[in-house]
Amino acid sequence: MVIFSRLRVLVAEDFSPFCQFICSTLAKRPNLQVVCAVSDGLEAIQQAEVLAPDLVLLDIGLPTSNGIEAARQIRGLVPKSKIVFVSQESSVEVVREALSFGACGYVAKTRAEQDLLAAVDAVLAGNRFVSVGLSYENFTAAGATASIKVP
Fold it and tell me: Any idea which architecture 7-149 has in CATH?
């Protein structure tokens, strides 16, 4: 009998239909289990501390505590959790700030259907991921999806 543990995922997204999309997309992978879905940053921080998920998917535009602040606090509370942003924000400055808090990936919502599972796979394999069309030093060459091994 083969026993494998499922990787635990916390999803923080305030737009319910998009949160459902993320959860149903993750459900396509038997090794992933969404253990909690929340709609604000403060709740994401609290649940991350309690659940210690393997992966946290965060929107940036969350109420009560934005995703970048939530990531900063989660990184301090649960340093082993890997963080991937899933956001409509696409400016280089926002991506840079988001990744500066230890996030391993950034998925543009406009590319989520194509990039979400690729980003999850890359990050869980120890790589970094940035969606196509987002340019970030050391992560992409202009307009190319990047998956780069983290040393």
Answer: 3-Layer(aba) Sandwich (3.40)
Determine the Cα angle at 141 with ends 90 and 56, to 5°: 50
Q: Which pairs from 26-31 meet CB under 8 Å and 24+ separation?
A: 26/116, 26/117, 26/120, 28/117, 29/117, 29/120, 30/6, 31/4, 31/6, 31/7
Say if pTM beats, i.e. exceeds, 0.85.
yes
Q: CA–CA separation, 85 vs 123, rounded Å?
A: 11
CB atoms within 10 A of CB 27: 11
User: In the chain, where are the structural domains located?
Assistant: 7-149
Q: In a 3-state reduction of DSSP, which class is residue 109?
A: helix
Tell me if residue 46 falls in helix, strand or coil.
Answer: helix
Tens-place pLDDT, residues 52-98 = 999 999 999 999 999 999 999 999 999 999 999 999 988 888 888 88
111-137 pLDDT, tens digit per residue, is 999 999 999 999 999 999 999 877 544
**CA-to-CA distance for 113 and 108, rounded, in angstroms?**
10
